[in-house]
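# nightly structure sweep
# worker-07 picked up a monomer target from the shared queue
# config: single-sequence mode, recycle default, output format = structure tokens
# input follows
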Amino acid sequence: MRTKQIHTFEAIENFKSQLLNWSQQFEDVVWLDSNNYKQHYSSYDAILAVDGITAIQTDYHKGFEKLKEYYTTTNDWVFGYIAYDLKNDVEALTSKNYDALGFSDLYFFQPKKIFLIKGNQVETLYLNGVCNQLDQDLESIKKSKEVTQSKSNNAIKIKLRTPKASYFKKVKDILTRIKRGAIYETNFCQEFYAENTSINPLETYKKLNTISKPPFASFFKADDKYILCASPERYIKKEANRIISQPIKGTAKRSQNKVLDNELKNNLLQDEKERSENIMIVDLVRNDLSKTALKGSVKVNELCKIYTFDQVHQMISTVTSQVASSTHPIDIIKSTFPMGSMTGAPKIAAMTIMEDLEDAKRGVYSGAIGYIKPNSDFDFNVVIRSILYNATTNYVSYSVGGAITAKSDPLMEYEECLIKAKAMRTVLEG
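# output follows
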């Protein structure tokens, strides 16, 4: 059982910063931040969950079954991530590519302390065994200092796991497979990395978030593993009996010149290739949602709408469905995972081909971070535009991907990847 209290803070942005600083003392941390980006389906402006009392950490083998058992047993809020490689639990697939990060495929924990922020109100949910710590915690949060900038002895030098020439060759291979009818579209990803590199995770996250200000930002810490996420994309949300998925396909750069920026935005809206990519993934998401939906309830609420963020314009669609109250939340997630925007169509064929052509295991990248509530509601983002860090091995990684269709030009696809990677590279290399 949890004790709930409501608190009001006038300087809410200052409180949020102090709260995130305070959270760093714990081994389990999930911070979710909308950056006050106003969008129709938000429940909270920000959430912090810390200090796990129970946890589940496993590889993909029977991963969803284990998560279902864990969630049912705890009967409480749980926070965590689902790595892309749980695809192997859903279908007869494998993950044999190089992995230097060493993250588990699935990690969830039941936090002792939760902070739910909406407007200038903060709702605290403390487990009854620690509820007497709340007043002391609030005092400690008010005294939390900003993290000072760390000095690195060595400049961070980003390397490419897939060289440019190899990338072009692989994209041409994909185009050949598309022309032969093996697939219609796929999301081809590549890793950028730095070895023997020490970073300040919180400082790095704050810099990344300041640059991007996305609606699905997340700071995730599990012992020595960190996910610094500036995601613009929601994977899936459950709100009572309604399911919401908002796939992104289509990216355009921003310009400081307002006239040129509007031109770039309109060009994206009218771009035949980008629209066809988006519509194909919408069809895939509709099919995924139909597996658990009540008959006739799957609807496309928004098709190819342009959303503007600090770094890029994005083409986003919104697909919804209704489910029966008896449908288990883990079954809904499993039946739609991995998200269509990070796979392709047909889904299984696309994932199989990408496993063959990509040079690094995706791991948490292309997965999801989020939470499940005791009433079975949930909300998960898509882990993109993210820096992953193993503090023990001093390995830093970020990956980017792009949708390849019959109309793709390898050079333009490569340049789009560089646009998506810009914020992460700027933060790491300066």
